[in-house]
Amino acid sequence: MSADGTVASRSSRTMSAQDQLRRVQDEFIRKWGEMGQTWGINRTMAELHALLYITGTPQCTDDVMERLNISRGNASMSLRALCDWGIIRRFHRRGERREYFESLGDVWEMFSIIAAERKRREMDPVLETIKQCQAMLDEQAIGSAARSETVAITRKRLESMQEFMEVTNKIFHAFVSNTKSGLNKVVKVLLKSL
Amino acid sequence: MSADGTVASRSSRTMSAQDQLRRVQDEFIRKWGEMGQTWGINRTMAELHALLYITGTPQCTDDVMERLNISRGNASMSLRALCDWGIIRRFHRRGERREYFESLGDVWEMFSIIAAERKRREMDPVLETIKQCQAMLDEQAIGSAARSETVAITRKRLESMQEFMEVTNKIFHAFVSNTKSGLNKVVKVLLKSL
DNA sequence: CATCGACTTCAGACATCTCTGAAACATGGT
DNA sequence: ACCATGTTTCAGAGATGTCTGAAGTCGATG
What we know:
Two copies of one chain form a homodimer.
Chain A: H1 8-38, H2 43-55, E1 59-60, H3 61-68, H4 72-85, E2 88-92, E3 99-103, H5 107-143, H6 149-177, H7 180-193
Antiparallel strand pairs in A: 1-3, 2-3
The first copy, chain A, binds a DNA duplex through helix 4.
């Protein structure tokens, strides 16, 4: 790369600083990817997001392909998925054909988005199921005089779980709404449930 | 099963109530298993836990094998893992050789245990990595006059992420500590960070 | 309208995770 | 000591998840 000997010392110091930065970033990216996996997020997506977040610099498809050593297809799909989640943004640069990507910079905002999305995709359906289960048990109770102990237990457990999930949802909501009164209200709800 | 015609009506009503209960439980178990998967918990473990939770009744290995249609090996390993997590309990019954398992009944307690464990296993190592990354960047800054923009950005992002994770940890801790003053303290911290 | 650069899609290869079933192990009773 | 009953372990089978690479799409440009 640098064939010039005269600026060797300055150049090498600069290069080493850049290398060092890159190594630090890679370390973060690696660990973030590992964590993602244990949370049900695939490694590439997590790493991709980590890369865009930690550099804070817009990058195009080829940049990330080279940096993470992944195929074009994988990069394309994963970047799209991250855009769908709403935690990275895609944009054009005037006069360029390539598209660039950048991460949201505000961690709280990212967390809000992810929490809201996971609530919608994963908590809400479970809550729905719990309510259906309760309805089914109620119907049955009307239809028969059977009041078995086991039914009572299941009913109770469904109730507890429902209450827990609803409180949890309120807590998530407080993060999103992000106001003092909202948070205090949540604390009150929480205290009553404990 | 019931070969007796005379008690057919009462018997069939009883059976149907039991069947209905079982169907409701199965529905909950199924959904819980699905949710677990998207959170990086394997389906069998989630279902196993759901079964023990929702029935609220101690069950032995053969019970769960039959109910969930899983092999003995799988049941054994998964039950052990759940015990390791601390959200189910294994115990003997006097005069019986089989071991029985039951779930914790308190959802809040289960959540506390899970949150604490995941924090320890997944958040803490990431926080550790972030601190190491920061240290590496600091060293470098001393060694060279290079104060590139990119380094500054990365440093800033590491800081934001660290702060976010530390606040999140405090919130988890408030759930565990479970006191009014603890929760209020958390709200204050939270408000300052927002 | 042919070409080019960039992006997307997806079938099949590959990697990882999960489960089974049988053998080994443990333990209590006779 | 031996059997009966129950549990654990783990190699290999099977299922699921992920990635690649090449063919296809799209739109800008000469």
